[in-house]
Amino acid sequence: MLQQIVRIGTLDYEKPKHTMNNKKKIITKFRLKRIGAFLIDAVIVSILLSIVYRLTGFANFPGVLTKMIEINRTMGETGTSDATIKVMSLFNEAFLQSLIIWFCYDVVTTLLFKGSTIGKRIFRLKLTNNNHKKGKLTYVLLVIVRSFFKFLSMFLFQGVPFLLSVISIFANPKSLAAYDRIARLEVADKNGV
Asked: Measured between alpha carbons, how far is 64 from 89 in angstroms, rounded to an integer?
C-alpha cells in the first residue's frame, strides 16, 4: 500500500493513502443474508399467524382493525376514548400472542434444524455456540434465552430496542445482534463452518 508523509508542525508521521480497500463495508453479503433470512421467517410466521387465527381466534388483528374502523365512524361521539382504550388493549393482546407464536417458531425450528430457522436454512446460515465445550442442554437453554431476549426487545417500547439490536449487527465485525451477545451465540455462514 502506498504511504504518504504528512508534516504537522515539526512532527512527521505516515498516513495510509485512501483507497477503496481501506474502507470497511457496512453492507456485506453475510449481513444481507441475515436480513433475508429474517424476512423469510417473518413471512412464514405471518402465514402461521393467519392459520392460528382461523383455527383458534388468537392474534385477532382483524378484530383490532374492525374496532379501529368503528372508532373512525363514531369520532366526536361520547365514549370514543373508551373505544380507543379497548382497541389498544386488543392490539397489545394480539401483538403479544403473535410474539409468543414467533418465539415458539424460532426456538422449535432452530432446535429441529440444528441451529437454523427455515430462513437461515435457505441462506445457509447457522446459529453456533461461541464455547463449543458446553453440552447440548446448555445450547438448548442458550437458544431459548436468545429467542426470549429477541422477542422481549420486540415487545418493549414498541420494538425500539429490537431495532437498535438489529442496527448493532452493522456496528461490529462479527455482525452480532444484542440478543446474540446476551446468549453468547453467533450466526455463522454454513459455507465457512
From this structure: 9
Distances (CA, A) of 73 to 65, 66, 70, 77, 90: 13, 11, 5, 9, 18
The DSSP annotation for 69-130 comes to HHHHHTTTSTTHHHHHHHHHHHHHHHHHHHHHHHHHHHHHHHHHTTS--HHHHHTTEEEEES
Residue 39 CA to residue 190 CA, distance in Å, equals 19
- When divided into structural domains, the chain yields a total of 1
Q: CB-based contacts of 145: which residues, under 8 Å, 6+ apart? A: 182, 183
Q: Higher model confidence: residue 121 or residue 179? A: 121
C-alpha cell, 100: 409468543
SS3 151: helix
Question: pLDDT for 38-53, tens place per residue?
Answer: 999 999 999 999 999 9
- Residue 70's pLDDT is 79
Quickly tell me which residue has 495510509 as its cell.
Answer: 16
Question: How many Å apart are CA 58 and CA 36, to the nearest integer?
Answer: 27
Q: What is the pLDDT of residue 6?
A: 47
For residue 121, the Cα-to-chain-centroid distance in whole angstroms is 16
- Please report the DSSP string for 173-190 in residue order: TT---HHHHHHTEEEEET
Q: Which residues form the domain of 44?
A: 3-189
